[in-house]
Amino acid sequence: MTTATLPWFARHEARLAWREWLWWLNGKRHGLVRTLVIAAFALAGLHLIAGLTVRPLLAMGPDPDRESLLLLTAGIAMSWMLMLSQAMESVTRVLYARGDIELILSSPSSARSVFVLRLLGIAAGSTLMALVLIGPFVNMLAFGGGLRWLAGYGMLIAMGCSAAGLAITGTLVLFRLIGARRTRLAAQVIAAIVGGAIVIGLQVAAIMGHQGLERFAVLRTDAALAMAPALDSLAWWPARASTGSIEPLVALLAGAALLLAAAIAWASRQLAGHVIMTAGQTARSSQTQTKLARFQALSAVGALRAKELTLLARDPWLMSQTLMQVLYLIPPALLLWQGFGEGTDPAPLIVPVLVMAAGQLAGGLAWLAISGEDAPDLIATAPIAPRTVMRAKIEAVLIAVAMPMAPLLAATALLSPFAAVMGAVGVLASAGAATAIQLFFRTTARRSAFRRRQTASRVATFSEAFSSIAWAAAAALAASGHVLAVIPAGIALIVLGIARALAPSRG
């Protein structure tokens, strides 16, 4: 038996990445034709959205003004922070979620070379994701504004390399500062905050400037333009590089490549020791928790409910998925606070956001509680009725959804009690519908598959989205006192009925 060579490991990593993309697109490890069809439709949709979005930038000439540079820079910064968030999550998965690290460390192959390949894979994955998702915007800019916009692809590569380099460095710094056990959760939380920071920040600034929830409105104000740097500032290099300026583009590409190379060179020497620390910390943590465990006198439903709430609170992978939805409640909360001082009624804006967030949050939590059960056989053989088990799971999901929603609904009640009641009804209806859809399409899966839950059933995914949108529209109209709220509410019930009819039979 011969030692695996570096090219072999490279092919192995490429296969794993390809399977991950297949899972992400269609929920299967195989099926090239189906994947290509789905990808073609997705790219067509992205190009359509891009064509409608980039219109304000098409008028930019080779020497753009400060407002155009500010808008383009904000879009680049938003995309880069999303790439950084994704890269941090990928680094965390390399450290914690891959089950073959110990095998690599014990093999006669060079562990550092393998780690270099995996870290390069993180950079390649971040860059490829950016090219796929943001590339259509570059294409439409080049189609409507000239070929000079194709330099945006070079900018995307620089963004991917720099995001990966910073994510690698930042995660390992966290490892040294707070230890192996806490880094897993901290990295997921930071990734979620980074991913939504600039979007939420722009919305907060727009609210404070009385522009509503339009995130780019604040960038067009005289105050923002007055604080913007001079036209010859280095701060505009990313925007100028995206519009075809060669010097900024070359400089940014070189800087991003150096940052990535330095991060990989440093991390590849440290990664083996960090993985060993991770395994040791996990083992000690499990032993400590076993010693400190205490039994409490609870009913069967209470014990199951407590178990589900504990699992939801401990799941670090859940943090990056659900914390983002909670963070997006900050702008409506600020709008509420602003409404107290001015005596206005922001309910028509706040209520649908709350209802939509409740539906999306409930869908993710319900999947974890219902389908992502890691011990289904143990639960199935327990001396308790299946109906009781399901009741406890549903109660845990609704409690977890109510915790972030209750304070905002209470604040809404101080401004408009009627709107708060309609919002509470909408939140309950949206969360209940999302939970019911997950019940209709429940499967047996592990909690670690949460990132790919949307590929399990396309019908469930779209039904959940349409249901949340319909309930949000119904709650908004009801909070405004319109009887037309019955129309979107009826549509939501129809969506739920269609989902039930299309769900697999459980005979």
Describe this structure in words.
Helix content is 78%, strand content 0%. It has 507 residues and is mostly helical. The protein folds into two domains: 287 residues, no CATH class; 203 residues, no CATH class. Helix 6 packs parallel to helix 10, helix 12 packs antiparallel against helix 14 and helix 13 runs antiparallel to helix 14. This is Permease. Keywords: Membrane, Transmembrane, Transmembrane helix.
Topology:
Elements: H1 6-26, H2 32-53, H3 66-96, H4 101-106, H5 111-145, H6 152-178, H7 180-208, H8 222-227, H9 237-242, H10 246-292, H11 300-314, H12 316-327, H13 330-342, H14 347-371, H15 376-380, H16 386-415, H17 417-440, H18 458-479, H19 486-502
Helix pairs in contact: 1-5, 2-5, 3-5, 3-6, 3-7, 5-6, 5-10, 6-7, 6-10, 7-12, 7-13, 11-16, 12-14, 13-14, 13-16, 14-16, 14-17, 14-18, 16-17, 17-18, 18-19
* Number of alpha- plus pi-helical segments: 19
Q: How widely separated are the two ends?
A: 50 Å
Low-confidence stretches: 280-293
- The average pLDDT value, as a whole number, equals 75
Q: How much of the sequence is in beta strands? A: under 5%
Structural class: mainly alpha
- Write down the domain tally: 2
Biggest sheet: strands, sense, closure? none
- In N-to-C order, the SSE pattern is HHHHHHHHHHHHHHHHHHH
Percent of residues in helices comes to: over 70%
What is the gyration radius calculated from CA atoms?
25 Å
Task: Please tally the β strands and state the result.
Answer: 0
Q: Indicate the overall shape.
A: globular
Keywords: Membrane, Transmembrane, Transmembrane helix
Organism: Phreatobacter aquaticus
Transmembrane segments: 32-57, 69-88, 115-138, 150-179, 185-205, 249-267, 317-337, 349-370, 396-415, 421-441, 462-479, 485-503
Protein name: Permease
